[in-house]
Write a structure and sequence with these properties.
The complex is a heterodimer of chains A (about 240) and B (about 600).
Chain A lengths: L1 H19 L2 H17 L20 H14 L14 H8 L32 H20 L8 H13 L10 H17 L11 H6 L32
Helix pairs in contact in A: 1-2, 2-3, 3-5, 3-6, 4-7, 5-7, 6-7
Chain B lengths: L2 E2 L3 E6 L3 H11 L5 E4 L7 H4 L8 H6 L12 E4 L7 E2 L15 H4 L14 H9 L17 H15 L7 E2 L2 E2 L23 H12 L5 E2 L9 E2 L5 E2 L21 H4 L1 H4 L5 E4 L3 E7 L6 E7 L5 E11 L3 H11 L16 E4 L2 E8 L18 E3 L18 E5 L6 H4 L11 H10 L3 E8 L8 E9 L5 E6 L4 H21 L3 E2 L21 E3 L23 E3 L14 H19 L10
Parallel strand pairs in B: 1-14, 2-3, 2-14, 3-11, 4-21, 14-24
Antiparallel strand pairs in B: 4-5, 6-7, 8-17, 9-10, 12-13, 13-14, 15-23, 16-19, 16-22, 17-18, 18-19, 20-21
The chains are: A mainly alpha (about 240), B alpha/beta (about 600).
Protein name (chain A): Gluconate 2-dehydrogenase subunit 3 family protein
InterPro entries (chain A): Gluconate_2DH_su3, TAT_signal
GO molecular function, one term (chain B): oxidoreductase activity, acting on CH-OH group of donors
């Protein structure tokens, strides 16, 4: 099973790379490049970007978590590109520098009453930036305590188990009253980075749009609107004019 | 220090659909009109030109066009006695902001009410008996009949260039239209948009089952249209970016594409943006509005005296400003007395995503927020006998997609995990072969569903947030089960490989995390009796006759259709009454 083998190798490589490379190096240049090289083992993968992305907001440990988590949430395989190779971690890092990251879109005035019925929505005090900073540290601490290692150094099956526990709200975190809220945030931002226009740093070369068949910013179907059921023939374009 | 401006004839609070119509109609009378809009001015060019308008992250997900909740929001609780908590992230309904309001980012789903919707209390009591209604249900009649309202519903359709297929012109039924609609004086301004593949399959199945499917009426023009103000719209190209987006192609009716180009040229009209009205000011006896107080972009408090005040902001802001200004008696859920805040309602939807074989190309991204979908109306309003079913109200069933934007509109088959390799494979395999069937239904009003001022939370200006008390009731759970079951029979007939079902079930609370519609209603309701309503049939305040309040805040309960068509009709009816009667003889238009 060459695919399985290549993925096993890739996992080992990824784990070792993230585990061994010191944070400062990873932060400045290593992370994205190593991950891209690793995913290049897959069949549908693009060549690595010319300039590796250096995160602005996330520190080395957070960046390692984010890359590892995104790689589990949307893994690379023969079906199509994974979240890491499409730049989802870069997308999330860049979002942290926007008004959204600072919480401009959310009402964050006190008092906070997190223990209400979940149907009443998000009730924590964190804007996205603080949410990532606090939750990643708490998740890594929980992983060290339970498994002896930070999340990024765990094997994929254990990482999946941690993410599933987070999703179900059964992974207690030191400072997050409702841990499942962080999973909602992480998964939403991951899918955003996967499917949003490439100008935001994710969905490199419209990889996800090509995979599903979405024509992106074409947004003019005058010539096709009276042909229901006939396969639309054109590939995607991006807002900045990239074509596929 | 507060600044006082020169008095004007009329001040308009909020420049969305209703404020734009009133500004235009009043300015056409030659009187001086100032519109105060808390948000910014925006227009097709330069704000949402192609391709920057078709940005799903910016508009669909972050909500560029909506109210920034950090500045202002509402609080929500499920029952009287609970502590309400803030609506911190936009999900279940969207709150509009800026010039054009929700008229910019609506879908253009443009319906008229069914005749019985306007007399929903007396109609149901007459047909099923008073005991058929639950004891705590507080539905009421509008003080206007369908036939009285028809010219104004028509006028709003002409404004929008609305596309569709008439089903009933002056009592004559027309094949291919909605056989349940009230008599229309004439056809839609422009013909219906073409069907998407999902709509085509839905209509075929529905027809085979004996229903009468018809194209969804849409305020997205199908042909160029010049409206009564001389403003010209262009045809829709089914780009798939409607709801939450500004229309880059001038096809979707909005204040910007139908009114503002003519209004902004009028010398007796002035628009002041970044001007947030904090209070409607009253004379010392409380019987007359003297104008408004607002805060401008610099934080300066300004008093604008006016002879006539038009309150035309979004539903929840209308209610809050009435409460903050002390106009009308606040509603008390314990006694059922008072009117301001009374009868808050919403709508209830259900949805099924359908997945076909790979040889079926649905092209889900070809669509419009309205149009290119097909509807059946057999289970809406009182179009069927409710007696065996134990509930009132209902909804329409629609087939097709409004677009295929992958973050908001990509569905995966039942049982697919939310993440991981299996999710990705499902997304890849099914995206191009999927479509959707939905139900869009009424919600009645109840004694315990209302709006007041929150005792704890405040907005950026330090004013109390509006507090919504709302949850589902048995009538609506029964209704959605019945209508959804009918929808699922059509889904089965469409014969997909698999399908999902999303439906509200007994025991589930109103969930603020799941978007359904932006159609929140009530709180400044219209009616025939000042004891049970806040405004009369012309949208005039019973308490302060030189104040008119427009918008979905007028609905005594929420019907099964999207609200904008009815809002437009009520707005034109009020505008005509002001022009033709009130300005000649200011005072109550309906004797108290």
């Amino acid at each position: 099973m060459p695919l399985d083998e290549s993925f096993k190798n890739r996992r080992t490589f990824l784990r070792q790379a993230l585990g061994i490379v010191p944070g400062a190096v990873l932060l400045s240049s290593g992370g994205a490049e190593l991950l891209s090289s690793a995913t290049a083992l897959g069949a549908t993968v693009k060549p690595p970007p010319a300039t590796p992305y250096a995160p602005t907001f996330f520190n080395a440990a957070e960046w390692a978590f984010l890359n590892a988590a995104v790689d589990r949430l949307i893994p690379a395989d023969l079906e199509g590109p994974g979240g890491v190779e499409l730049g989802v971690p870069e997308f999330i890092d860049r979002q942290m520098e926007t008004g959204y990251g600072y919480g401009e879109f959310w009402y964050l005035s006190s008092p906070f009453v997190p223990d209400v019925d979940p149907s009443l929505g998000y009730q924590l005090q964190y804007a996205p930036r603080e949410f990532y900073r606090t939750a990643i540290a708490d998740i890594d601490a929980a992983c060290v305590s339970a498994h002896g290692n930070a999340f990024s150094a765990l094997d994929p099956a254990t990482q999946d188990a941690v993410l599933t526990a987070l999703q179900k709200g059964s992974l207690p975190l030191a400072r997050i009253a409702k841990p499942a809220e962080f999973f909602i945030q992480l998964l939403a931002n991951t899918k955003e980075g996967y499917f949003a226009d490439p100008m935001y740093g994710g969905n490199k070369h419209m990889g996800s749009w090509k995979m599903i068949g979405f024509p992106g910013a074409r947004a003019d179907f005058k010539s096709w609107m009276t042909r229901p059921g006939v396969v639309y023939p054109l590939g995607p374009v991006s807002i900045q004019g990239e074509k596929a | 220090m507060t600044v006082t401006m020169k008095p004007v004839d009329a001040v308009v609070i909020g420049l969305g659909w209703t404020g734009s119509i009133l500004s235009m109609e009043l300015a056409s009378e030659g009187i001086n009109v100032v519109a105060l809009e808390r948000g910014a001015y925006r227009d097709t060019a330069p704000d949402w030109t192609y391709p920057k308008a078709v940005d799903e992250l910016k508009y669909g997900i972050r909500g560029e066009l909506f109210q920034r909740l950090s500045k202002d929001t509402v609080t929500i609780r499920h029952a009287v006695g609970d502590t309400a908590v803030p609506y911190r992230q936009l999900n279940v309904f969207l709150l509009p902001d800026n010039v054009g309001g929700a008229g910019v980012h609506w879908n253009g789903q443009h319906y008229r009410p069914s005749p019985e919707d306007l007399k929903f209390y007396s109609h149901n009591v007459e047909r099923y008996g008073a005991k058929f209604l639950p004891e705590d249900m507080t539905i009421q009649d509008y003080d206007v009949t369908y036939d009285e309202l028809e010219p104004y519903l028509d006028e709003f359709e002409r404004l929008c260039g609305t596309s569709g297929q008439a089903g009933n012109i002056r009592g004559k039924l027309i094949a291919g239209g909605n056989p349940f609609e009230g008599p229309r004086s004439r056809d839609y301004p422009t013909p219906a948009l073409p069907d998407s593949e999902g709509a085509r399959r839905f209509a075929k199945a529905a027809k085979e089952m004996g229903y009468s499917p018809f194209p969804q009426p849409s305020a997205n023009c199908s042909q160029p249209w010049t409206n009564q103000y001389g403003v010209r719209l262009g045809p829709c190209n089914l780009c798939g970016y409607c709801e939450r987006y500004g229309c880059y192609i001038y096809a979707k009716a909005s204040p910007q594409t139908t009114i503002l180009p003519a209004l902004l040229r009028k010398p007796n009209f002035e628009m002041r943006t970044h001007s947030t009205v904090t209070k409607i000011n009253l004379s010392s006896d409380g019987k007359r509005a003297t104008g408004v107080t607002y805060v401008d972009a610099t934080g300066q408090e300004v008093i604008q005296p006016a002879d006539l005040v038009i309150l035309s902001s979004f539903q929840i802001n209308n209610v809050r400003l009435m409460l903050l200004s002390g106009i009308g008696k606040p509603y008390d859920p314990n006694t059922g007395e008072g009117v301001i805040g009374k009868n808050f309602a919403y709508q209830m939807m259900s949805e099924s995503a359908l997945f076909f074989d790979k040889d079926v190309a649905t092209n889900p991204f070809i669509g419009a927020g309205a149009g290119a979908q097909q509807i059946i109306d057999e289970f809406n309003a009182d179009h069927f006998d409710h007696a065996p079913h134990g509930f009132i109200g209902g909804g329409y069933i629609l087939g097709g997609t409004t677009g295929g934007r992958p973050l908001q509109q990509l569905n995966v088959p039942p049982g697919t995990p939310a993440w991981g390799a299996a999710w990705k494979k499902a997304a890849k395999d099914t995206y191009l072969h999927s479509t959707r069937v939905q139900t869009h239904s009424s919600v009645m009003s109840y004694r315990g569903a209302y709006v007041d001022l929150d005792p704890t939370y405040r907005n950026a200006l330090g004013q109390p947030l509006a507090r919504i008390t709302f949850d589902w009731h048995d009538n609506e759970y029964k209704m959605t089960k019945f209508v959804t079951d009918r929808a699922l029979e059509i889904v089965a007939k469409m014969n997909p490989k698999s399908h999902t079902v999303t439906m509200r079930k007994p025991g589930e609370h109103f969930n603020t995390r799941q978007y359904q519609t932006t159609h929140i209603t009530g709180g400044v309701i219209t009616g025939a009796d000042p004891k049970t309503s806040a405004v009369n049939r012309y949208s005039q305040s019973w308490d302060v006759p030189n104040l008119f309040v427009f918008g979905a805040s007028a609905f005594p309960q929420n019907f099964g259709y999207n609200p904008t068509g009815l809002i437009g009709g009520l707005t034109y009816m009020g505008a005509h009454a002001i022009r033709e009667k009130y300005l000649k003889s200011p005072g109550p238009l309906v004797p108290v």
